[in-house]
Amino acid sequence: MLKVEDVNLYYGASHALRGVSLEARKGAVTCLLGRNGVGKSSLLRSVLGLETIRSGKVEWEGGEITRLPVHVRARRGIAYVPQGRDIFPRLTVLENLKTGFAPLAKGLRTIPDEIFELFPVLRDMLHRRGGDLSGGQQQQLAIGRALVTRPRLLILDEPTEGIQPSIIKLIETVIRKLAGRGDMAILLVEQYFEFARDLADEYAVMERGEVVLAGAGKEMVEADVRRYLTV
């Protein structure tokens, strides 16, 4: 389980995260919702170690990781699919996937066949440059690259952004399959309500750096959540 407890994060004098607590368990999808600028990505960056928190703690698989550097967290099975995908446009699909080898021991530096089963287009385009792929194909590549690391915690930051409906449906199916295996926790940041609603085992809603709603996905009240999503 991922456990975030009472985390406070500042950017200078700006209090970005205000006593945020959150849990994500293996075999489940935890959806984090909220408008732009409310602290969702800051929370993800705190879990990853990309931001140094002022107070609180982050635990993963029973051990505290609050002060561990990013590369150590990656070696402990935490993978990140960033908003905007951040693939390497001049590298081929195969080379992009191989960048996922970085946190792995030499004996594990192979690309699992499962990635091509989940995303067949990647096999077909192995030798195409990442920059030549469509937005939806790049998103599949970004998720595939994260899966190369054999994560036990997969963090996705708005994977539906700018993606066509057919690919959104594919990504939803993939997330459901990964969670269904039972060996991976999935933390999903999303603004697209229907996508989050259909996937969430647990959910949390943020506003102004705080969690203002949380609970089981099946108990999510659409009207209550949507009022924190609309501008």
Q: What's the rounded overall pLDDT mean?
A: 95
Name of the CATH first level: Alpha Beta
Number of helices: 9
Examine the secondary-structure arrangement and name the CATH architecture. 3-Layer(aba) Sandwich
Distance between the termini: 33 Å
By helix and strand content, what is the structural category?
alpha/beta
Helix fraction by DSSP (H/I, runs of at least 4): 25-40%
Radius of gyration: 17 Å
Structural notes for this entry:
This protein has 231 residues and is an alpha/beta fold. The chain has a single domain (2-226), classed as Rossmann fold (3-Layer(aba) Sandwich). It contains nine helices and ten strands. The chain has helices at 40-48, 70-75, 93-98, 113-118, 120-124, 135-148, 165-180, 193-199, 222-226, and strands at residues 2-11, 14-24, 29-33, 55-60, 63-64, 78-81, 153-157, 185-190, 202-207, 210-216. The strands form two sheets. Strands 6-7-8-3-9-10 form a six-stranded mixed beta sheet, sandwiched between helices. Strand 7 (153-157), helix 7 and strand 8 (185-190) form a beta-alpha-beta unit. It starts with a strand and ends in a 5-residue tail after the last helix. The mean pLDDT is 95.
Summarize the structure.
The chain is α/β, with parallel strands linked by helices and 231 residues long. Helix content is 32%, strand content 27%. The mean pLDDT is 95.
List keywords for this structure.
Rossmann fold; 231 residues; four-stranded antiparallel beta sheet; six-stranded mixed beta sheet; alpha/beta; 9 helices
